[in-house]
Amino acid sequence: MIRLQDIKNNNDIKALIEGANKTLEVLGYTEHGIRHVTRVSNTAAKILRVLGYPSSLVELAAIAGMMHDIGNCINRKNHGIAGANLLFPILLKMKMPMEDIVYIISAIGSHEEQYGSPVNEVSAALIIADKIDAHRTRIRKGIPFDPGNIHNRVNFSIKKNWLEIDKEKMNLRYEMIMDMNVSCPMDFLEIYSTRMRMCEDAASFLNCSFELVINKFVLNKPNYKIQ
Ligand SMILES: [Fe+2]
Ligand SMILES: [Fe+2]
After folding, report:
1. What global pTM score does this model have?
2. Measured over all CA atoms, what is the biggest interatomic distance in the chain, rounded to whole angstroms?
3. Ligand having the closest approach to the CA of 80
């Protein structure tokens, strides 16, 4: 079985992750490097682990998280599909079983909000883990606070965020502490509302509800399953 550590040790994959991050730096995007993909990998795996999915799927979620943004080294547009195509021969060469490859490439190919949606459990966990990574540490080093840039403003304002996974209630609660002197929930929603809706869909795929909580206030109506 291919493990997350095998992926982390692979020099081709390392170069693709770094290349994608450099491309996005030139284009003025927030951090998409090791910090982001490691966080997404950890969160995606944790979601499936806490919800009681088999360890094989937990590992696939960790692997998909680590590689989900490599397509950005080709182009930002359609980077999910590009990344899945790039990975296919690499995973085949690593002798990953084809059924596992299918999980990973469909999850990566479906993680973008412009055309993606949850297509399997790994995909649903990846979507949530990716879309909730809004935080001040995503602002690249040396970039000053810019009140005229909404992405900079929103990320700068988020001092703390976390995901509470409640298996009893089947609820995923994404909570953040936002500095209201820097930005506000309206700003957050202006750039994140589609992504938060995608999280609701992904949570629902896992038979969970998804709550968005900013400064202790619940902003959405949790999508509780009707029994
Ligand atoms: Fe992405
Ligand atoms: Fe991402």
Report:
1. 0.96
2. 52
3. 1
Q: What is the pLDDT along the chain (227 residues), one digit of tens a residue?
A: 899 999 999 999 999 999 999 999 999 999 999 999 999 999 999 999 999 999 999 999 999 999 999 999 999 999 999 999 999 999 999 999 999 999 999 999 999 999 999 999 999 999 999 999 999 999 999 888 899 999 999 999 999 999 999 999 999 999 999 999 999 999 999 999 999 999 999 999 999 999 999 999 999 986 655 44
Taking the centre of ligand 1 as the mean of its atom positions, its distance from the CA of residue 36, in whole angstroms, is 10
C-alpha count within 13 angstroms, C-beta hemisphere, residue 71: 22
- Is the CB of residue 73 less than 8 Å from the CB of residue 16? yes
| CA–centroid distance, residue 227 to ligand 1 (Å) | 34
CATH number corresponding to 4-218: 1.10.3210.10
Residues in the chain: 227
Q: Of the bound ligands, which one is closest to the alpha carbon of residue 114? A: 1
134 in Cβ contact with 158 (< 8 Å): yes
CA distance 80 to 109: 4
Q: Is 78 left (phi over 0), alpha (psi -120 to 50) or beta?
A: left
Nearest to 46 by CA among 126, 131, 119, 161: 126
Question: Residue 92 Cα, ligand 1 centroid: separation in angstroms?
Answer: 22
Per-domain residue ranges of the chain: 4-218
